[in-house]
Amino acid sequence: MTVVLSARDLRRHYGGGERAVDGVDLDVMAGETVAVMGPSGCGKSTLLHLLGGLDRPSGGRIELHGRRIDNLGEKALARLRRTGIGFVFQSFHLLDELTAVENVEMPALLAGRSPRAARRRATELLDRVGLAGRAGALPSQLSGGQRQRVAVARALSNEPAVVLADEPTGNLDSAATLDVLRLFGSLHEAGQTLVIVTHDARIAATADRLLSMRDGVLIDETRLTGGTSGRLGSLVRLED
Amino acid sequence: MQQEVVLAMLAKEPSHGYELRARLRDALGPLGEAMNAGQVYVTLTRLERAGLLTAERSADGADRADRKVYALTPDGQQRVAAWIAETSWPKPDLAEFHLKLIAAAAAGLADPLAIVDTQRRELLRRLRDAQRAAMAEPEHSAAALLLEGVVLRLQADLRWLEACERTWTHRRSGS
């Protein structure tokens, strides 16, 4: 198995002695879905920002496909964020004045693709997230779940090595959460590597590997392989 | 299968055994897969003996349980009405797990945090199974609504386990 993303002794300390991330070691394998769970303030969002180059570590190292990225210059880091990594945020971060398809094609345009190739790719991606019919809609005309699916399509624009998601279901109701989980499931089947930080157990339950984070460190790893008895009826009181 | 549930599913109109089972299957979806016809017919037989329903052989004279037509008696209708008005609700047995942690810690039988951890894995597995089943349901299916209830309860239980973990971590470091 190939390691896609790895961190060693990763740290992010702030003035005043606050240690948001305090020595994290992590290897994310190709095609794996990893969930990082923990209470608010445990450092999980900071960890994700460090992994994606949105924030700079105070110490340690990060490698993407074996290449160090924690010490890149601003320009190289910006390029990496556009092409190597896809981001999905809790509050979607779509541009309100652009349509769905325009939002999705933006990263491809920024990466220097031709407008025609970018549009073709964006159209394919919207189809893949089940929104082919809403390409011309503005974010304000879409439901929360649909907006998040647009954001996922945008994250996939440049075929990133890894998609990093920060509380992707944090603003969604149950039905929309299921939609997003279904979408992550299909990305997983297609071999996309995913790292999701969340306090939503529903996401954690669908990941290959679940890491628990407290006070800036990873304290526990769970693999949910194997099933329950396999009898769904035992989840309710139909069988005594 | 609870007797009142079977009675209530017959309240709409007298029905064949197989119709009754189809109604239950639609309502329960994958959660009802483990339910076998035998359980339902055992319950029907008990209800008939208790005078709460009648079982008529269908016209073709077959004696098979799923070809019989079941109908509520007036007593059966009263029982259903009383059941609909009841406010009973399943009580999760949290006390048992709570006492398990206390007993394990007091007697040094096991580390309460390890017990919490094992339990969390088990609940996460159930959550995963329930969620997969929910994702496979068509929109607006009756079973999807039931599965949502299962998912929400498991989430609540997992949050309580987080509280258990916090408290027992605190107790352990305090002692």
From TrEMBL, chain A:
SMART domains, from UniProt? AAA (SM00382)
Domain ABC transporter, by residue range, is 5-240
Q: Which InterPro entries match?
A: AAA+_ATPase, ABC_transporter-like_ATP-bd, ABC_transporter-like_CS, ABC_transpr_LolD-like, MacB-like_ATP-bd, P-loop_NTPase
A GO MF annotation of the entry reads: ATP binding
A single GO cellular-component term on record: membrane protein complex
Task: Tell me which stretches of the chain form a coiled coil.
Answer: none
Membrane recorded as keyword: no
Q: Which UniProt keywords apply?
A: ATP-binding, Nucleotide-binding, Transport
Q: Which CDD domains match?
A: ABC_MJ0796_LolCDE_FtsE
Q: Name one Pfam family in it.
A: ABC_tran
Superkingdom field: Bacteria
Keyword Transport present in the record's keywords: the answer is: yes
The entry sums up its family as follows: Belongs to the ABC transporter superfamily.
**By its UniProt entry, which PANTHER family does this protein fall under?**
IMPORT ATP-BINDING PROTEIN, LIPOPROTEIN-RELEASING SYSTEM ATP-BINDING PROTEIN LOLD
Protein name per UniProt: Putative ABC transport system ATP-binding protein
Report the source organism.
Actinoplanes campanulatus
Q: Taxonomy-wise, where does this protein's organism fall, top ranks first?
A: Bacteria, Bacillati, Actinomycetota, Actinomycetes, Micromonosporales
From TrEMBL, chain B:
Keywords, comma-separated and alphabetical: DNA-binding
The GO terms describing molecular function are: DNA binding
Residues crossing the lipid bilayer are: none
Enumerate the spans annotated as Transcription regulator PadR N-terminal domain: 6-81
**Family annotation (PANTHER family):** TRANSCRIPTION REGULATOR, PADR-LIKE FAMILY (PTHR43252:SF2), TRANSCRIPTIONAL REGULATOR YQJI (PTHR43252)
Question: Under what name is this protein listed?
Answer: DNA-binding PadR family transcriptional regulator
Q: Species name for this entry? A: Actinoplanes campanulatus
- Print the organism lineage: Bacteria, Bacillati, Actinomycetota, Actinomycetes, Micromonosporales
